Structure formats: structure tokens, C-alpha cells
Amino acid sequence: MIIVYNLLWTFGSFLAIPWLFLSAIGPRKRRKTVLQRLGVIVAPGLRALRISASGLQPVWVHALSVGEVLSAVSLARALKQKYPDRAVVFSASTLTGFETASRLLQNDLDAVFYFPYDLIFSVRSVINRIHPSLVVIVETDIWPNFLSEMSRRKIPVVLVNARLSDRSYSGYRRFSRFISPVFQCFSFVCAQNGKDASRFIGLGLAADKVTIAGNLKYDSAPDLDSQNAIHYLRRILSGITHRQCLVAGSTHPGEEVILLKAYCRLKAEIPALCLILAPRDADRASEIRSMAVSHGLTAELLTRMEDLPALDPPNVIVVNTIGHLKALYALSDVAFVGGSLIDFGGHNPLEPAAFAKPILFGPHTGDVAESCSRLLASNGAQVVHDSTELVQAALILLKNPERARAMGNNAFQILLENQGALEKTLNAIGRFVQE
Question: Is 300 a catalytic residue?
């Protein structure tokens, strides 16, 4: 299977040579990303990495992108606190994931860097630099060469906060003959729930290699980083702090149009209402700002708010930064979680729940089904299928503060009741940490 996989990788890499060349000579940020992921240059954090005086080899934590990084922050910090004499390093695959990890973890861990492409020479280059004693992968990001190389070197790999969506599971089942050996490279899997655990076992993992540890996102309570961000946002958004605010987070193309139409109808009922739009891809912020203006609204980018007078704030604020969404939810009266009106799998509804906010999301929440189901069952959230339902639900909550407060408290209670995954995950990982 690995031979076939590498032949396909080689063919694909050959086709990608023009893109790699342009990236390598392109903007500095892109150049650093490609060359580090290829293993051609060593990430700055890894250059200074040294084995501890006690000879203990590092623990390597990896998360794919922003959502997985945010799930992993508390775990990475806890690992460093539990094993202070051992280096703990952290990788992410995407640019936004790397930037988020750097901002949140660079002062706590020993290195933050880009995960290598799954080319055998790239993988070996980074492994030879780190010499990890253990790798912890958060949620998903399963690469055959990487896992095969770890298995060959007898380095344990633990998959934590693990989940398999219906779509992913169906795809893996279709190619189970080829994918089962890859999954068997995992030393242990901490699944989010029983359904996920059964799926991993169904893909070839032995039952004694799988446990149900819960969802780390329930343990991601507001911390000092969040409080500092809230303080900063209250200052630059002082012009809207006395107004009601709808925060729509992690939105995707197609959703902003629905949200802007809904907002225009809401504003007719509540003229002072403010809309804060935080797209999943911050690079789309200027495009979304123009979209809002085309709807007859005043709109501005978040980074421009500090320079504008507080007396006349815009109707719509579009977030063009990374890492402020959780804090923005704290300022909301109603929170909408995107990626759900159009089928992008949904995003984390527990971020607004952590601030006891009433939550709305669309019907497409396959990637976060478990937490959404709990919130809906407790009346801590509500599904809206389109612009009309969004307007109706938001109006009820905005015009009935007591009802909104009760809904937010229900959401917060679900968060509290389901905490404990961090401790269970640390205990499972501890079995593979050599003292």
C-alpha cells in the first residue's frame, strides 16, 4: 500500500513542480511555509532544539489547522507542565494553524513549526531533527508515510480527541483494505465518543488500543489569552458596547449573503443592532466588506476600528484577523456558528457556550454533531435553516433578554457537565511517555 501511495505522491509532486517553484520564489511567508514543509530548511524553533540534560527525548504534538490547534492548546500546555524536564514541540499544517499556535504557545513550548509534507524525505528530515519519543496527533491528519516511518522507528503515535465523520468513515471503509494498515500504526486512540471508538475499531484497530476520553473542546474554557483579547476588543469597539450585537463566526462563502440579508431585516426591527462577521478565511474580509456595502450598509474591517471615532460605528464589522473569534463571542448577545447553513460540516459551538451565549447554527453540523446534539437537547442552541428562520430566532432572543440568558446558561451547563477529557487524555498519553 505504501509503495502505491508513494508512486501516486511522486506523480502528484511532479505535476506540482511549477506551483512549488513559484511558492519557493514567492512571498517570504509562502516561501518559508513550502521550504519548511519540504524539509529543505529547518524551522527556526527547531534549530535551537536540544535534548534535555536528562537525555529525555521530546514529545511532539500535532494539529492540522485553527480548529484543531485550539482544541490542542490546553493539552500541549498540560503536557509541558506534567513533563517539565522534557521538550514539548508543536506543529500545524496550515498557515493559519501555525500562526494561531505561534501566538498561543510560543512562550509555553520549546518549538512551533510546520508539519512536513508526507514525502518520505521530508518526513525523515524533520523526524531526524526532533528525535521524538512520542507523537500526539489531535483530531485528524492521517498521513501514511509519516505513520509508517514512526512505526518503523518504534516511536508511539497517539491519536487524541479523535473523531470520524460519516463522510470520512464511509470513504475509509470503501478503501479499508489499504487504509487499515495505516490506522494500525497508531499506538492508541482516544475517541470523542462511543460511535467514534466503534468506527476506529471497525477500521482495523484492536479494541484494547481504543478508549473513549471525551471531547477536549469542553475543557477549553476562557483563559488569560481570551481575557486579554476581550479587553482589547472592548477598547477598540467601545462604540458598539452599548448596542446589541450578533456575532457570526467561522462563516464560509455563500453564508455571508444569507447573514447580510437576515441582518438587514433584523436592523429594520432593531435599528441599533450591530453585526460582526468573522469569516473562516480572514483573507476574504475585504470581499465581505464590499458585499455588506452593496447591501446598503456601512461596514469596516476590525483592524480599522481602532482608528475610527467611536461616536459613529459601522453597521457591520468584518474580522480580518486570526484568533479573536472566541473573545468576540464574549461580546455578543446572540452567536451564530458558521459552516452550517451551507454544508461545510459546521464549526465549534462550544466557544460561545463558554461565555453562556445563546447559539444558533444551520443544519449542516456533521463535523461537530455530538456537541451540537447535546446543546440542542438542553435548549442551549437552535437550528436555523435559512435567512427567514435566522431572523425569527434572533429576534426572539434579542427582544427577550431573559430567554436569551436562559438559553446561554443551558449551553454553559452542557460545557461544564462534559468536561474531563483533558485528564483522561493525559492519563492515556502517560502510558507511552518513557521516564
Answer: no
